[in-house]
Structure formats: C-alpha cells, structure tokens
Specification:
alpha/beta; 8-stranded parallel barrel; 3-stranded mixed β-sheet; 15 helices; about 40% helix; globular; binds 6-O-phosphono-beta-D-galactopyranose
C-alpha cells in the first residue's frame, strides 16, 4: 500500500469502450451498415480477417458487462453510440429500437450507480453518408448536428457528460491514408475532414449553450508526447511539424480558435479552399467554449526527419532506447504530465478527463502484470498532475474486455477482461487490481516494478 497519494474524492474511475468494437449485432433491430462493416470486407484490411459482426456480443450481454463493471467498483462508463442504430439512413427517420438499446444500457448503468459518459461519434459513420461524401461533405456538420441532438435530447435527463467526437486525428488519418475506414488515402481529404469535424463539434457545443442545456459537453482528443530523435536541426523541425499536425491541429482551434501556422501552410500547399483553415466564422464556432476536454494518452512519439514524406517527418516505432509494448508503442508515462501541462497552460483550470489510457498486452493473458505496471506508472504521473493543481477529474482505462481493435482485429489485447470463443468473460489480474485501486481511491498504486498479488 502506498500512502500520500491524492485523488479528489469525486474522482471518476472508469473504463472506455466503443460501439463497433464491442456490440456486434451488426444488422439487428434496424441498424444500417457503417463504414467499418464495409471496410472489414476488404481483402487484407484486417490483420486476422475478422470483423465486428459479433464482437463481444455486448448488444445481447450488456447486463453481464455492466455487472462486471459494478463488481470492479467502476464509477463511470464511457460508451459510444452507433449513429447507424439511431438514424439508419444517416439523416431523417429515428429508429426507436436503436434508442431503446442505449436506453436499457444507460438505465442499467444508473441502477448500478455507474455514471455514463456518452461519445457521440467513435468512427462508425453510416455507410450511406460516406457514399454522399462522408465527413468531407459540406453537409456533414449539419448531418452530425441533427444526429447528435437526437441523442442529447433523448438522454440529457439522465446523462450529464457528452463528448462529441473521439480522436479526430485518427479520422484525419482514415481520410488521408489508406488504412482504417473509409481509407480514402487522399491527404487533401484528411485536412477537409479535420476542419469539418471541428466545425461539426462546435455547432453542437454552440447549440447546447444557446439552449442552456444542463449537461457538460466536450470532445476527446488523443495527444502524443512528441520529441525529436536527436537534437539535429532537421529532426527538431520534423518533430515540430508532427506536433502541429498531431496535437495542435485539434486543441488549438478548440481552445484558441486558430490553427498553427504549419497546418495552415500545409493546407495551402494542398490547394485547400481557404474557408477550411483560415480564420473566419467557422473557426469562431470551432472554439465555442467546451465544459471539459477528454484526453486519450498512450505513448511518446519519437520523431525523425524523413525526406520521402510530404510533411517531412517519420514516427519511430522501435528504437534501442526506451520501453515499448509488444506492438511497438513507446511506454512513456511522464509524457502524460507534459501534455496535461500544455492544455492547462492554454486553458487554465480546464476540467480534463483522461478518457483513454491502456496497453496492448498479449503475453500472460490472465496474469497481465505488464498492464498493471503500465497503468500504475501512468496513475502515479496523473497523481502528480492532480497535486500540481491540474484539474484532472477522471481516468478511464481502455478497455474493459478484449475487443475488436480495428485493423488488428482480435489480435490486440487491451482488455482487463478476456473473452473466449463461447464469449464467456474471464477477468484478468488487472481487473481485480483496478477494483482495489478504485476502492482505495488510488491509494493502492504500485511503485515502479512493484508487485501486487490477488488477495486470497
Ligand atoms: C481508441 C480506439 C482504441 C485504440 C485507441 C488508440 O479511441 O477506439 O481501439 O485504438 O484509440 O488509437 P490509435 O490507434 O489511433 O492511436
């Protein structure tokens, strides 16, 4: 037991999931196809050739999963809503059965004293909208606003926290590169998608504020602690570019109402219409004040100069120095402190939730000490941030159950609970450990390299 830690009394200890990654029931009760349903059919798109058709079958087993969370003392559950279940045609008619599913999930959470946090969009766009231009369509912000308002208005009497979009940077990549749905592979589209996502987000925030809705609205961004591989001028410049595109392209418009110069120059170099990245009314909307910021933090991003890349940087995924997960992500807990300090400097006192943090640990499936070590190291850093006065209000582990991890299919293991072929849930050591951490409000966190045994 380690004393002297301090987390606020009302600290939200949680877990995060996403609809496509756990629900399954891909064509049930009126749900339409999402871009991920379609993408998974593409030869070679998913490492193990799998898809989210069944996933963890959470659609039918949500009570069991919420019972599991309750047994782990989880206080808050961050889930995402599938647009394809709510408005199968993307725009227009509402599917009552879709709403009913989430109604049941949320009511069951509340009955177990678990507070829900809703992510409105976690990458599963209705395919029908993708065929009309997807996130890059001029109409996208309005489509999103219409859908988001249906969800907010329906649940606002019971749910206080709504995040508009999960990791817009990953969506940027899905349009600019040819990996992850819709894998359009056109840099210009990635940039247009970014501007549209941020504008769509702002439109909803504006509406919530205008109508004085009694909810907290924010967005979830992923931040990488980026540093140059060497002090060489080219590496430093490359890291600066990566910082601008990966991190600042999102938090600057949201918190400051502007894009960094590198991003504007890059957009101009692609011949993108000035309305997307140059200061104008759209940008004012992007920066409508949020009630909180969700930060997903996984890794440090060592960066070097790469003349082959149009943006001149190359992320390093393996290096001699440092500690990496089996899947090549550098474990660097101190980076969490660094990214939080940046946000707090720009928006002092901004309420921050660590909406995702976790590791893909494949060896020792049930005795996952590596995950316990990863999480405890990050929690120690987070505690320092809290002590320094950064307004961190909660921490959500990615994720509850081993699930469909996008292009890695079911090969990745981020869960605190394993799942077998019969879809039975088997808690790992980390699940027992996390429940003790929560029970002690963070008192029980291990020192580096420490050991924790399941009490008998
Ligand atoms: C979440 C995803 C997770 C995980 C994580 C890391 O939002 O739903 O499955 O992938 O982000 O994201 P990325 O792999 O884009 O860095």
């Amino acid at each position: 037991m380690r004393k002297g830690l301090f987390f606020p009394n009302d600290f939200k200890w949680g877990v995060s999931t996403a609809a496509y990654q756990i629900e399954g029931a891909w064509n049930e009760d009126g749900k339409s196809e999402s871009i991920w349903d379609v993408y998974c059919r593409k030869e070679g798109a998913i490492l193990d050739g799998s898809n989210g058709n069944v996933a963890c079958d959470h659609y039918h087993r949500f009570k069991e999963d919420i019972d599991l969370m309750a047994s782990m003392n989880i206080k808050s559950y961050r889930l995402s809503i599938s647009w394809c279940r709510i408005i199968p045609t993307g725009i227009g008619e509402i599917n009552k059965k879709g709403l009913k599913f989430y109604d049941d999930v949320i009511n069951y959470c509340l009955s177990k004293n678990i507070e829900p946090m809703i992510t409105l969009y976690h990458w599963d766009l209705p395919q029908i909208l993708e065929e009309m231009g997807g996130v890059c369509a001029d109409e996208f912000p309005q489509w999103f606003k219409e859908y988001a308002l249906v969800v907010i208005n329906y649940f606002k009497d019971r749910v206080k926290y709504f995040a508009t979009i999960n990791q817009p940077f990953s969506i940027y990549r899905a349009y600019s590169e040819d990996k992850r749905a819709p894998a359009r592979g056109i840099p210009k589209l990635g940039m247009i998608a970014t501007s549209n996502l941020l504008y769509a987000h702002g439109l909803i925030v504006k509406k919530v504020k205008e109508e004085k809705m009694d909810i907290d609205i924010g967005i979830v961004i992923n931040l990488v602690y980026i540093i140059p591989l060497t002090n060489n001028e080219k590496d430093v410049k490359a890291a600066r570019m990566r910082e601008a595109i990966t991190n600042e392209m999102f938090y600057m418009p949201i918190l400051k109402g502007c894009f960094p110069k590198e991003v504007v120059d890059y957009a101009d170099s692609l011949g993108i219409d000035k309305k997307y990245f140059h200061s104008n009314d759209r940008m004012k909307i992007m920066s409508c004040p949020v009630d909180f910021l969700g930060v997903n933090y996984y890794q440090r991003g060592l960066t070097t100069f790469d003349p082959e890349n149009k943006m001149l940087f190359l992320p390093i995924t393996k290096a001699d120095a440092g500690e990496f997960t089996e899947t090549g992500r550098e474990i660097y807990p101190d980076g969490l402190q660094y990214v939080l300090e940046i946000i707090d400097k720009i928006s002092p006192g901004m309420p921050i939730y660590i909406t995702e943090n976790g590791a893909d640990i494949r060896k020792n499936l049930l005795l996952d000490d590596e995950r316990i070590n990863y999480i405890s190291k990050h929690l120690l850093v987070l505690n320092t941030a809290c002590k320094k006065g950064i307004n961190v209000k909660g921490y959500y582990i990615w994720t509850l159950i081993d699930n469909f991890e996008w292009e890695n299919g079911y090969t990745s293991k981020y869960g605190m609970v394993a799942i077998n072929k019969n879809l039975e849930r088997i808690p790992k050591k980390s699940a027992f450990w996390y429940s003790e951490v929560i029970k002690s409000n963070g008192e029980l966190i291990l020192d580096k390299g420490g050991k924790w045994e399941i009490p008998v």
